[in-house]
Design a protein that fits this description.
The complex is a heterodimer. The longest helix of chain A is centred in the last third of the chain and has 29 residues. Chain A is 47% helix and 13% strand. In chain A, α8 runs antiparallel to α9 and α10 runs antiparallel to α12. By secondary structure, chain A is of the alpha+beta class. The relative contact order of chain B is 0.10. In chain B, 49% of the residues lie in helices and 9% in strands. Chain B is an alpha+beta fold. The termini of chain B are far apart. Classes of the chains: A alpha+beta, B alpha+beta. At the A-B interface, α2, α8, α9, α10 and α12 of A face α1, α5, β9, α6 and α7 of B.
Chain lengths: 388, 339
Amino acid sequence: MEVYVEFAWNEEHTAFRGKVRDFLRQELPGDWWDNYGGEGPASSQVMTHARSFGRKLAEVGLIVPHWPRQYGGEEADPWTYTILGEELWTSGEPRSSLYMGSNWVGPAIMQFGTPEQKERFLPAIARGEILWCQGFSEPHAGTDLLAMRTRAEPDSDGYLINGSKVWTSYAARADMCFLLARTSEQGEGKAAISCFLVPMDSPGLEVRPIKAVHTPDDINELFFTDLRAPASARLGEEGKGWDVISTIFHNERVSLPRPAMALKALDRAVQFLKVRGLYDEPAIRAEAASALAACEAARLLFMFVIDGRAKDKPPTADTNIARLAVIAAEFAVLELVTTHLPDQLGGDGDGVLRFQFQLGIASGVGAGPAEVQLNMISGRHLGLSRRK
Amino acid sequence: MDFDWNEDQETLRDALFRMTARHAAQPTSGGTAAAVHFDYNWDLDAELTDGEFFSVARIPEYGRLGAALVVQEAARSARVVETVASALIAPLLFDKDLPRPIALARVEDLTRMVRFLPVAKTLLVDTGAEMVALDVSTDEIEEIDSPFAYPVGRYQKAKDLSAGRFATSDRATFLQWWQLGIALEMSALARAALDFSVAYVKERHIFGRALGTFQAVQHRLAEDAELIQGAHWLALQAAWSGDAKDCALAALHAQNIVRKVTYDLHQFNGASGFTLENPLHFWTYRLKWLQGELGGPHAQAEVVADAAWGTSGDDSRLPWGSVGVAPRDTAPMLEGEFA
């Protein structure tokens, strides 16, 4: 019988998932969810742990299995990398921001980098050695990225960078910043933007933490004051940064492991509901079941996107549909937990539920807000124009 | 994983599309001031029968996914033809063909309202303990006017189920395929209604511009597209796996999304969406019927919860090991402890 619409993992993929799970069981501390995972991947606990954990992941080939062999990968298919992402994310993302390197910074360097940049960064990313942050959003340029004002003034030695970034996760402990800045006075459009790879210990770069509900320093402001960057810090051609960003967004906005984490948190919530004798309440069971449906729907929509990637199909708005679906899924789980198990969200609450709460409550904000997804779906999936 | 249809399935889908397109969307046949009759499309039914489309579920190359295509394409087409029981449920349950069309009912529905009952030759009834198959005699049936865009009817008096052609105690499987049918039909109805509405808002002008250029309209349609795509893949996954939980889950999600989707689509079609000359009601009013079929979302949710997490005392289906520690809970403080 010919293979057709098929929703099962093959033997190779199942074996790979087992390998990752075995590794995580062996390598993560016994108190992982109590003292690490529940704090979130940008926390000091997880970021500090990631420095040693990343090297261990690299030793067993689990940092960049999807990369080309010439850069240390095994050319694993998108499904394999999806499985890796699911297993790590549902473990509280012990890679911390190492994942940026393998997900999109590395691929961007492969596509747009100079031979020197490839030699400097790709092996280090593949060894799990670089914690990244991304300097995109600014006080007046969040979703509207083209409104950014941070300037990288070209001069004879390279660039002089001045400006500020905000909402920068991981920055307090990151090694490198993937920075966007304007390199031209000409207009405010795409043509004036360039990308830079900037060490976080550069003179002229100050990191100020922003205290948030969950955390003292997981998100930050960056201030650039006459930061001198050599020309070799620029990734891609000057003024062609938008091409790089477009590639990044395609990779970043998939958020493919998030439904799996929501499913795990939902299972965890049901465990608590059972312990408390709440699970027999029909209304609560209905709430949990509907959340499960939303999570499974989101996961399938992501898998549909991965199927397209595995077949080298061009990107479509199906990515945005999946992103929108995961917001609904994460909120469904969030509502269940906050309504019936709010005490588990305190500092000594359950690590899995605390992690999911942090994800869920900001779900529609990060990695392209929900409204951007809606715009993309309207335009590219439904063919609706905003022109009168 | 593979989310593409194969060549055979594409051919089947194309054939269904061409066939349904040849038959006009069925005009209504009148009725009372409050509601209307919806005539059955016997010509399309005959063509589907002659082409053996009601048997594809028994062909290994097609199986449940082939039946899913029949159900979805018929639903999309807005034609009045019965497919869920004939193309999906009956072939999966029985080796031999039953007289058809086939109506589906819970026993409590028999004297209330059952879709396709006025045209059915066979009725499959869930009694709560077993599934009973009955021959339908039209002189026992009263056709009812309704808004639901199906021919609907009821028994004029209580039916003696012991006169059934046969019964099966495998009620769970019957209900499972029924849930799958609900999910498949609803996801296709919703997509067709969405596509129709998107085309409409591109053409309809208001305040000097196309209705579909307003962001408020676009965003709601985009939300609907996401919900419907999710329902579509859940339904197909259930058709592929045949798993009881997947079937219930797909039906639950489809029934959950109806309220928002039908509200939005009618809102954007305005008053014309409620007229018989506008085909929107063929999709949306059927969705409203199916929203409550088989007990509605709460009934499907009970099945999902049982399948996913078992009962209160059963933790065998929960992945305790993936977290590493069991839930720690503080014991509720008892009165005596205040002393």
